[in-house]
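Session log. Operator J.P. requested a structure for one protein chain; no other inputs attached. Running the standard single-chain path with token output.
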Amino acid sequence: MTRELSRRRFLAASSFAFATTLMPAPLLAEAQGAKQRMRLILLGTKGGPRPGGKRHSPAQVIVIDDVPYVIDCGNGVAWQYADAHLPLNKLRYIFLTHQHSDHNADYGNLFFLAWTAGLKTPVDTYGPPPLVKMTKLFLEMNEYDIDVRIEDEGRPQLAPLIRPHEFSEPGPVMQDERVKVTSALVHHPLVKPAFAYRFDGPGRSIVISGDTTPSDNLIALARGADVLVHEVMYLPALDALLQRVPNAATLRKHLLDSHTTTEQVGLVAAKAGVKTLVLSHLVPGDDPKITDEMWTADVRKSFKGEIIVGRDLMEI
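Structure written below.
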């Protein structure tokens, strides 16, 4: 187990234990059981596709009774998945919130590398267009290697194992014996459609915002959820970030038009009435001078629940 994951699990467990000391015994047992059955692990917490720093691009996995539901596939997701001590050959579900490179760059690589790690069972993938075309083209691009490994290593055919489900409208996405997944349209120009997801599982509900400006649709989707993982942008640090890029004016407009500030995310979480707000997809996400207190100060103006500044391999 990595040192970061171990430390985060310890801190999360300590916080959970303290928060539940005053609970009646039946409620305490129920809360502990729900958290054990439905785990959330942040695999990547930095916004944007550019590699570097101590954070990876956006990805998270919800594990319910040892079945993984991966949401978004930023660069390095397979390595992070393995570092979270999850078996790649047991990959089962993948969800993409939208088709932006920091969220989909390793979509194909995740199921491809899972296959090289021994995957033999189906993987269902869900997301907006062109998910089906992306899947087909990825398999075609890697056809040579796939064919060699099938012949040389005795692996099963990969294409029949990957089952993409493409959709453009909000609403129910899928449901199995463990969880119900629902989507809502969010606002992230120019990428359309872009979705947030809600996972209602055994005793716990988790919402992943994807990329969005403050969204009434998201607030409705997240109403009363136990955990909301929401993207966030720290405005005072934007100017320093933009000094490093030649397209500063265009990028600044995109960031302001397409994302949510620390102050805005506090209002979103308060209106939704969620119990815990997890800040992720941090922009800028590789500036060590931005402390947790700086990320949360404006959030606390509106939201009085638990606030967690996400870090890679943190379990919640």
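Operator note: Residues 3-12+33-309 form a domain with the Metallo-beta-lactamase; Chain A fold (CATH 3.60.15.10).
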